[in-house]
């Protein structure tokens, strides 16, 4: 294992329930997310994408294997240590923006630092809002911002602690096509400036903004694409879905066109 990489999963499994009703959401997943990379996670519904993200981000505990996040092995960390690690080293963005409606954009962005007992400087807030293109909207309430602008505030809030890695679960899922593309271009620029992003998405175009796409099926990594185009991603997804439909089970990775 290379402790310098921001996220490493070693034989990670996650099951829910026990006995005949148990579900294996992740099945022996090993992968490394390199520093400064943009990784998209794709796969059919129920393939384990969100579970992968949650385990990798320390929001959920695997039932087997190890996760090393920002150089720290999460195995055996108590809840307090895990909470602090998440707060200080990791950013999260979800499909729903989860902004507090009574706070301005700037106040929403400041929240993580305030929760950590720090008073953010005006310059810090201005810089991060400028980085997401919202310098002029700092004093607006979320209700006075468009969906794309609200998601930018959520991204600024995730970045205010200068995390080593940003985890995003369907960050463009609630946005229209053009707004999505603008947001993805912004995320890609941030990666080009050194941020590491892991993003779950259903959208082949969104995935094409990433450096690599990891495909999951039945909780397993079945293939990868480097420097993906939207068309390649869409074709791979279609093939995965068709193989599952006709065989009723997941093809072996060796035969899945990795
Ligand atoms: N809390 C839970 N309890 C029981 N089963 C769960 C739980 N969370 C997820 N699962 C199951 O684990 C599997 C993987 O779920 P997960 O949400 O990770 O898939 P996904 O690929 O993100 O799906 P989607 O694209 O539909 O969001 C599914 O079969 C799901 O039903």
Automatic annotation (TrEMBL):
Residues 7-243 form the ABC transporter domain. It comes from the Bacteria. Pfam families: ABC_tran. Gene3D superfamilies: P-loop containing nucleotide triphosphate hydrolases (3.40.50.300). The keyword Metal-binding does not apply. SUPFAM superfamilies: P-loop containing nucleoside triphosphate hydrolases. Keywords: ATP-binding, Nucleotide-binding, Transport. This is ABC transporter.
């Amino acid at each position: 294992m290379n402790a310098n990489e921001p996220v490493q999963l070693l034989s990670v499994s996650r099951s829910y329930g026990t006995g005949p009703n148990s579900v294996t959401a992740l099945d022996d997943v090993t992968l490394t997310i390199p520093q400064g990379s943009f990784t998209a996670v794709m796969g059919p519904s129920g393939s384990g994408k969100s579970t992968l993200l949650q385990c990798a981000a320390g929001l959920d505990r695997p039932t087997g294997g190890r996760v090393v996040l920002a150089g720290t092995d999460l195995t055996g960390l108590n809840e307090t240590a895990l909470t602090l690690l998440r707060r200080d080293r990791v950013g999260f963005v979800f499909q729903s923006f989860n902004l507090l409606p009574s706070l301005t954009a700037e106040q929403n962005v400041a929240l993580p630092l305030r929760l950590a007992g720090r008073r953010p400087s005006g310059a810090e807030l201005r810089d991060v809002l400028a980085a997401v293109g919202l310098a002029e909207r700092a004093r607006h309430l979320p209700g006075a911002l468009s969906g794309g602008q609200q998601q930018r505030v959520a991204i600024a809030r995730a970045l205010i602690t200068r995390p080593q890695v940003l985890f995003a679960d369907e960050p463009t899922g609630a946005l229209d096509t053009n707004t999505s593309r603008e947001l993805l271009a912004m995320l890609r620029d941030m990666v080009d400036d050194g941020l590491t992003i892991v993003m779950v998405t259903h959208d082949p175009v969104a995935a094409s903004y990433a450096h690599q796409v990891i495909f999951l099926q039945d909780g397993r990594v079945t293939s990868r694409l480097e420097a993906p185009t939207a068309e390649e991603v869409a074709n791979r997804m279609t093939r995965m879905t068709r193989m599952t439909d006709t065989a009723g089970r997941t093809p072996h990775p060796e035969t899945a066109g990795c």
